Amino acid sequence: xxxxxxxxxIKCKHMDxxxxxxxxxxxxxxxxxxxxxxxxxxxxxxxxxxxxDAIRPDTEDEDDGKWLAINSKYAEIWxxxxxxxxxxxxxxxxxxxxxxxxxxxxPNPGKGD
Length: 113
Known about the structure:
- By secondary structure, the chain is of the alpha+beta class.
- A hairpin with a 4-residue loop joins strand 2 and strand 3.
- The longest helix is centred in the middle third of the chain and has 10 residues, at 66-75.
- It is built from four helices and four strands.
- It has a two-stranded antiparallel ribbon. A two-stranded antiparallel ribbon has the order 2-3.
- The model has no long low-confidence stretch (mean pLDDT 94).
């Protein structure tokens, strides 16, 4: 098992999770984070830190592995992030919205550390 970041993170990107990760397995996109599944040690300390419940075990990927594939792909090309950056000013506006991947996902990298 590994943990994955799902749709809820898009346009919210709170980053509390990166501070507690003991193996620095978070990678930053323009408007979301992902977890590198080969680096995640399944400790679970990141999951309760996410205020929008975007981090889940990969066993809860109800979309036939869609989110595991997205996390795997973008963790290879986005920069690593280990400290909290600036949360988007309008994050609260998108916190409860569903279907954000199709509407807002950006494949562009974030700044990283």
